[in-house]
Amino acid sequence: TDAPLYADLAGDAEVSFEFFPPKTAKMEEVLWDAVQTLAPLAPRFVSVTYGAGGSTRERTHATVTRIQRETPLSAAAHLTCVEASRGEIDEIADEYWAAGVRHIVALRGDPPVAGEAFRPHPDGYASAADLVAGLRARHPFDISVAAYPEAHPEAASLAHDIDNLKRKLDAGASRAITQFFFAPETFFRFRDAAAAAGIDQEIVPGILPVSNVAQTRKFAGMCGAEIPSWMDRLFEGLDDQPAARQLVAATIAAEMCRRLYAGGVRHFHFYTLNRAELSFAICHLLGLRARPVAKAAAA
Ligand code: FAD
């Protein structure tokens, strides 16, 4: 491959980090440590997920507004259409706007019962495209949407899914962030197909550093991403070797990022799972260097 060596990377990559809202005080500490470790890499934004069925409404809000208020980072709130009326969602959006949050990751969300078809709330937004249009009509948010390099499991075909992505972007989103994937070619094929369909907005690869294959496979089964068999082979025999597992995990993800970089990618979105080390190490290999963080704007 003609991908540059790590030592030759220009340090011109940009990154963003995704967190989930903590459930306990202990988890909150872990999250905050991760935010503080990753903040010096000056991410474009950090985002906070919204639990299935809207279950983390308050916790997502608290986490996003705390990041926005207490750090110099730009916080993005994930928001889904599940189990909520338009009025309820519009209210959440208004609260974010009032708190100074300017970026929403707009999603449809998964059906409350896994495997069942998605049924919109009778007064709700029917799809992510619908939500994007609703948000745009309310406030001039910067909006990101989801994309699926291996197609969303409910999509009739990859072409249909790309049409849907185009609808979301045409409705007012400015970028798409992808589901995780483990082969750069998967991303490049998708990016080419999107471009051929007339999509010219940025498609940001979602990078999941994997250090636990079994856990990842459980999750991947639900979201249309395949775990290749070489991944099992690379982690074989490492169940009782957590340090080696971390090194292997960083190597796999960094290699993929290096090849994506060679293919022109300059923004990488990391699924951190609220742990900083792997994402930090991969960013470092990509040429990013920690810079001093400005003091919090307001306590
Ligand atoms: P949509 O874009 O609305 O699409 C859903 C499916 O319906 C697709 O197959 C699409 O092709 C099809 N479709 C939509 N409209 C039409 C139409 N008019 N005609 C035909 N087909 C149509 N989930 C959470 O609960 N919380 C989160 O915080 C969260 N964050 C995520 C972040 C990222 C980056 C990604 C990639 C996913 C995230 N998800 C999250 C998961 C997401 O909610 C699920 O994948 C969900 O099933 C689909 O959401 P969507 O926004 O992609 O839906």
Walk me through this protein's architecture.
42% of the residues lie in helices and 15% in strands. Strands 1-2-3-4-5-6-7-8 form an eight-stranded parallel β-barrel, surrounded by four helices. It is an alpha/beta fold and 299 residues long. It is globular and about 50 Å long. The chain is built from ten helices and eight strands. α6 links the parallel β6 (175-180) and β7. It binds flavin-adenine dinucleotide. The site of flavin-adenine dinucleotide has 24 residues, from β3, β4, α5 and β6.
Characteristic terms for this protein:
299 residues, alpha/beta, 8-stranded parallel beta barrel, 10 helices, 8 strands, 42% helix, 15% strand, binds flavin-adenine dinucleotide, MTHF_reductase_bac
